[in-house]
């Protein structure tokens, strides 16, 4: 299977004007660690791999936004466009269409969250074991 760099290159290769993606410059380990300390969060390792290649991104014409580990940008990790509707227990990493892309440490899983009851997440949300699977899912939908 593809590693993270190959996944990003695959996404960049989608050239239809309305489907183009933009990737930010990579984050350093020290930037990621500083963000975690300042924001008081722990970023899952597979998302850190992404951040080391691109510190945030807008994919497929804006259908998906992946958040940055930079306290000085609007779309940073844990940015909640729903004004507090996402439970504090979830770490918000981006959005896909109308859903938040989150990490739920209870299940050590990434989920697409759209205002489900916190106790029902495991039954009602799409769940992925790592961020690689999240990117594969979004890419498959956008390119098929």
TrEMBL record:
Instruction: Cite the Pfam families for this sequence.
Output: SMI1_KNR4
InterPro entries membership: Knr4/Smi1-like_dom, Knr4/Smi1-like_sf
Tree of life domain: Bacteria
Knr4/Smi1-like domain: residues covered: 26-134
**Protein name, per record:** Knr4/Smi1-like domain-containing protein
């Amino acid at each position: 299977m593809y590693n993270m760099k190959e996944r990003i290159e695959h996404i960049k290769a989608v050239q239809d004007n309305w489907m183009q993606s933009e990737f930010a410059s990579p984050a350093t380990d020290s930037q990621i660690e500083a963000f975690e300390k300042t924001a008081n969060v722990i970023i899952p390792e597979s998302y850190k791999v992404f951040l080391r290649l691109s510190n945030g991104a807008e994919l497929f014409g804006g259908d998906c936004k992946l958040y940055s580990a930079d306290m000085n940008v609007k779309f940073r990790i844990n940015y909640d466009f729903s004004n507090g509707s996402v439970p504090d227990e979830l770490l918000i990493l981006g959005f896909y269409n109308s859903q938040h892309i989150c990490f739920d440490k209870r299940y050590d899983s990434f989920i697409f969250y759209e205002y489900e009851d916190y106790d029902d997440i495991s039954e009602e949300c799409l769940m992925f074991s790592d961020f690689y699977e999240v990117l594969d899912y979004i890419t498959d939908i956008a390119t098929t």
